[in-house]
Design brief:
The chain is mainly alpha-helical. The chain is built from five helices and five strands, in the order ααββαααβββ. The chain has helices spanning 2-28, 37-48, 78-94, 112-127, 140-158, and strands at residues 53-54, 74-75, 164-167, 179-182, 185-186. The strands form two sheets. A three-stranded antiparallel beta sheet has the order 3-4-5, covered by helices on one side. Strands 1-2 form a two-stranded antiparallel ribbon. Helix 2 runs parallel beside helix 4 (112-127) and helix 3 packs antiparallel against helix 4. It is flat.
Length: 187
């Protein structure tokens, strides 16, 4: 069920990106069937204008502040740019524009120009003191609590059968890692 939600969300995002690309290219007098790497880079730069990640100037007083209020330019995060490029590659492949971009043929999103654009975004953000966001780490005690909660809910639904167990140091000879296992297989 979770996988379907993410797939649906990804498909909606890709469809929205496809519409944005078509509208953008239409304004340029082009289309996705005649699009060049230069136009893909222009599109990515156009999308970048709606970013929310601050790229600080050298003497900005808000460097390192969690929610800065400075007037530094806002850009798309590097991870978002990478996702958009991957989605564009998939869109062009779906249209039959496969393979690397060579002498006006192939996938324009797979071109060297787009790779250079992505590298320039990375450099700009590293110079602008943009640190990639990271997921909050989840430590073992919390994982154990979550597993016990899931187990309790499953027991309620399955009529009292224990489905999950947690094995860790000392519980299994020669194994120092924690594992969540269910019905005889590691999850």
């Amino acid at each position: 069920m979770i996988r379907n939600h993410f797939n649906k969300s990804y498909q909606v995002s890709k469809s929205k990106l496809s519409c944005q690309l078509e509208n953008f290219l239409f304004e340029l007098g082009s289309s996705s069937f005649s699009c060049s790497p230069y136009e893909v880079c222009l599109f990515l730069a156009w999308c970048d204008a709606n970013g929310k990640t601050p790229v600080h100037v050298r003497n900005c007083s808000d460097i390192g502040v969690k929610k800065p209020v400075c007037k530094c330019p806002r850009r798309l995060a590097l991870g978002t740019v990478k996702v958009k490029i991957a989605q564009l590659k998939a869109l062009f492949e779906k249209m039959g524009r496969c393979g690397p971009w060579v002498q006006g043929k192939g996938n324009p999103a797979a071109s060297e120009e787009v790779a250079i654009y992505q590298e320039q975004v990375r450099e700009e953000q590293s110079l602008g003191h943009v640190a990639p966001s990271q997921a909050v780490p989840m430590f073992l005690p919390k994982v154990k609590i979550i597993a016990m909660y899931i187990n309790r809910k499953l027991e309620e639904e399955m009529g009292g059968t224990q489905l999950l167990g947690i094995f860790g140091p000392g519980n299994k000879p020669g194994n120092n890692s924690w594992r969540l296992v269910g019905i005889g297989r590691t999850i």
